[in-house]
Specification:
The structure is a homotetramer.
Chain A: E1 3-4, H1 15-23, H2 36-49, E2 55-59, H3 62-73, E3 78-83, H4 87-90, H5 95-98, E4 103-106, H6 115-123, E5 133-140, H7 151-163, E6 167-171, H8 175-179, H9 188-194, E7 197-201, E8 211-215, H10 224-230, H11 239-249, H12 253-274, E9 278-279, E10 287-288, E11 290-293, H13 294-300, E12 304-305, E13 307-311, E14 316-322, H14 329-342
Parallel strand pairs in A: 1-12, 3-4, 3-5, 5-6, 6-7
Antiparallel strand pairs in A: 2-8, 7-8, 9-11, 10-14, 11-14, 13-14
């Protein structure tokens, strides 16, 4: 059996979650997210972001969270704006458009948006009412390329959005990884303060399913629950989501798991860099993109699973390696050794 | 703590499911429903319905299943038709309309649709193109009132639909309870044969989440997976659904759990009937609607939770009691005794 | 050639409109509703309703106006409420649902809604967030049955809506006929004051196409123009709509045309009543529903076109006669004479 | 009063249309497109394209035609593909997305799509079911840049689409201008043969409103009329559209009008070229884009209205001049003279 570095959702969940599911299994609870575990988990999150007035909803996955947020926030003629690498643009089968909204794309090198990227989009959408109104800025942290936002970058972007009456929405499917990355200077509290709405991803960080949507902007809180039910995202047994986030939030398990994933990735990155390997982008989270020659890729793929991400030239391609909360040292060491033997 | 008869999703899941989740937890699997457990569970279902060519998809809940099926099957100008008690009409926040489709309502006594109920709807929608085209017949089994379809009723309805080029879709959120009811003469195989598409509900029968959508009509199979992703219903860790259905399908656990729920309801029903209590409808599944006087309701509600469903006259109301796969004998006995003491 | 009483859109338009179209034909004008004629026509309407701040948009037809207004005003989880006879429920191919919104139906005798009809709908939609939120009350004046609202009725309804935070929207496809009916005590000014949004129908009152949407509620004015473009309702040559409304508004041509249609209907009504004919409903606008025996209907249908509306018993049916701005005295007299000869 | 070269919809309509509207004005006709004029106009179009089995529908405008066609043809998870200059991408307020469909954009120089442009889009959308399925190729002829398709180009594209099970849809808002352009070798018959669906634009070629949607592919014909009603595009007085197309189709008035517009543009183009003026693109239809210096633009804009289209360098910009069926020789001559005096 090959070890897979293809993604961070190949295994089940952290054992503490399974234990908690068993522990509480026979307690009768109110359905649809009103269970005690969900209420407590939300309370813990509110404490962490130091905002008593945040509205919090647990849903199953990232695409669901994205379509719920965007369709709830926008009026029919308003559009989202995303980096061209954005998950909503490429990997969600038109989920946003299916709710009626255009997503405007901005080409960027590193998967991040800056005010200067957005200015031309606003300028090119002034032919009222013949064009959509750009209204929500969608960013991912960490991004689809593994990069992260600095505090300064997020502050500038947040400031820009407020001045231009744009909503700032952060896709946090891998927010844990971003906030525990080596170069990170953001905090969960700052993310909550600087965005209008964001989510904290569980699925890619040790949960079976689950993303916690956190709405800071009071204008966007009203009636959000209706949309969750209408889009088929309200679980009868909301306890399944509540228990998981309760465990993840306790003792910062959430951040410990993300940190583990990052460290395993960094071990491989450092080892490869020492061997002179170049990387497609300079990342500090659990996604790395080493550029390897064809022979090396072929040999490594005999023992490991991973995606060949992008052809660089005739001989070299970048591969994508993703580590997870559960990636064992053995797999990491094995990969490093195997690579060491073959890299020319 | 009061014992709740409010619904069949108050507890977690059958322990066998938790055990299986733990057993397989660290096995790496392909994501998005391509895991080994999902594939095996689908194989088991195909065997049970004796149809190798059925397409099967696992999704999280009933509203999600309903909106996925209906929006996938219908063209923009086509509508669904439902009994006025239908879940899609009353309890899904307009989820079907949110995908663009009208739901036509038919008043019925017992929550079931018969060809003679549908004929006038077809006759009243002949003003082409000024009216929607009725195209999909939505039925629930068991219904929202706890009633069930007989084989003969389903055969007639199926025959009518085929003659009129209508799709027949069965909401099986409580199909287990229907198929194990005392008066039932339908089988899962017959359901699959007589409908174009239906689903087998897990959430209300011992799973944490999960409904198995089964597409028998080949015309409706094409590209269904795209809709699941687009509507945010495709879980990265599809294993969560696969493992649950694998356990439920093994050794007919699914039907044993439903049978237990039904029997517990029937014990209460029989005991109350012996005391002369009338019922709102004559049901044989896990939903019963005894008609009790105000005093009895007040006394019982001190020890038990349940919904007061419908006022019958000044003194009497029907309450709704729902039992589940996990309802213990003690709760049933306690309810019967408590009722016995107070019923006048 | 038989004379048709089937509807009020069988002919072209009032000659004054054709003359104006010719008169202004070669003047170059700004497109998309910013032409001089549209601006002047809007000014005239604002004067008539005595509201300088009303936003006014001209669109092509009634279904278009209805779907534009409702989809613009409602949030995704909110629904419209209509009398069961409402045009949006029966004759628009699910146009409202196609924009994502459910329409709740209320059975009424005369096609009108009163607060007491709406109260139960509000009471039955309290299961948040499992049900849509009723938010917009849709009424027609005159209704699809030819009946009209009195000032007192509209005041009560308006008051009820404001107290319950509901929007009141009047479909005025035949508002001219309502406001010029014999028993009417409403004015255009009062309609504007008592509704949040309404439209003034041109298509059924002497225009080629055209409905004037008038938005009084400032909250609903914002960005309405985007929706018009997005739904394909913004005409490049907006002058076509502007010129028509300019002519209709000048010298109250609009009301004179509607009055003519009403008077022609009343002549037939009175003549038939004198012959002892009963009517399905007591109407004073350009739609009348005399109840005639089969023989009479057969004989009349040899010379005239009309719809047989509703079977009353084995021998008698109600027919629908609609008169228009252009119905000549000869046709009316001929019908009365022909009927007189045959009515038993 | 300045003469406007801003667009081809500044005036009313060709006088023959007004005459016909007057001539037929008092004839009673069936509504909703079943009038005699519409039926005859469709017959004339079928003769011109030599296809007795084409389905034809008249609608009001281009955005309406585009959203109707695309939302009718595509399944929810399928997308349209357009050149980046496409009207549906930039100038329709997200009308296509509002019906639930993504539009994929392809960068092109001249506003035209070729098979080799589309291949990479197909290749990049193979991650089933995580991406939309490209299914409909949207092209404009003439394009938004004034360029046109040759017979060979359209044949290759059509062939490519059929081989790849893609629908080919031509936006013909300015199809008349394309087919009468100097360099054109396409015919209306060939357009009908090589596309699945296209429309013939009236609004920009002498009608008040009106586009004729022509469906050649039988699979796409079914039930199209329902969509027209549902989207609010079905006019009660369909005669307004029918009469216009009847006049335009008679004696090839449609093509004569387009030819006039083209010739007026070519006169200006030739005169400016003789003065050494460069053009942004080499066009032969009624849109031209001369590159002029700031001084020239300022002087010309004192007498004429036009859009400054694109800055070329510090001193020079391209302006857009559009001529129409009604552009008089005087305006053309005056422009040429005025330009001649000032061009350096």
């Amino acid at each position: 059996m090959k070890y897979s570095f293809k993604n961070d959702y190949s295994e089940g969940c952290h054992p503490a979650i399974l234990e908690a599911l068993s522990r509480y299994n026979f307690d009768q609870q109110t359905g649809y997210g009103e269970d005690q575990y969900s209420l407590k988990a939300k309370e813990l999150i509110r404490q962490k972001i130091k905002n008593d007035h945040a509205d919090i909803y647990f849903v199953s996955g990232g695409t669901q969270a994205n379509l719920l947020v965007i369709s709830s926030v926008l009026r029919p003629y308003q559009s989202a704006v995303s980096a061209s690498t954005g998950h909503i643009l490429n990997n969600e089968t038109g989920a946003i458009e299916a709710t009626g909204h255009k997503v405007l794309s901005i080409e960027t090198e590193d998967g991040k948006l800056r005010p200067e990227d957005i200015v031309p989009v606003l300028e090119n959408h002034g032919n009222i009412p013949h064009q959509v109104m750009p209204k929500l800025i969608y960013i991912s942290n960490s991004t689809e390329l593994g990069t992260i936002y600095t505090l300064e970058e997020l502050e500038k972007l947040s400031d820009f959005c407020r001045k231009n009456q744009l909503y700032l929405f952060m896709d946090g499917a891998r927010l844990g990884h971003a906030l525990t990355a080596e170069m990170n200077d953001l905090t969960l509290e700052k993310v909550a303060e600087l965005t209008d709405i964001f989510y904290l991803g569980g699925t890619k960080n040790g949960a079976l399913i689950g993303e916690a949507i956190i709405i800071n902007n009071k204008d966007l809180q009203q009636d959000f629950g209706f949309n969750i039910k209408q889009k088929g995202a309200l679980l009868a047994k909301g306890r399944l989501l509540g228990i998981q986030f309760l465990e993840l939030m306790k003792n910062d398990l959430y951040f410990k798991l993300a940190d583990h994933a990052n460290q395993q990735a960094m071990k491989i990155k450092n080892a490869l860099q020492e061997r002179g390997v170049a990387f497609l982008s300079d990342t500090y989270t659990n996604q790395i993109f080493p550029v390897l020659d064809r022979h090396t890729i072929r040999v490594l793929s005999e023992k490991f699973e991973f995606y060949v991400w992008k052809k660089v030239d005739e001989d070299f391609s970048a591969i994508r390696l993703i580590t997870s909360w559960n990636t064992p040292d053995e797999a990491v060491d094995d990969f490093i050794q195997s690579a060491g033997k073959v890299i020319r």
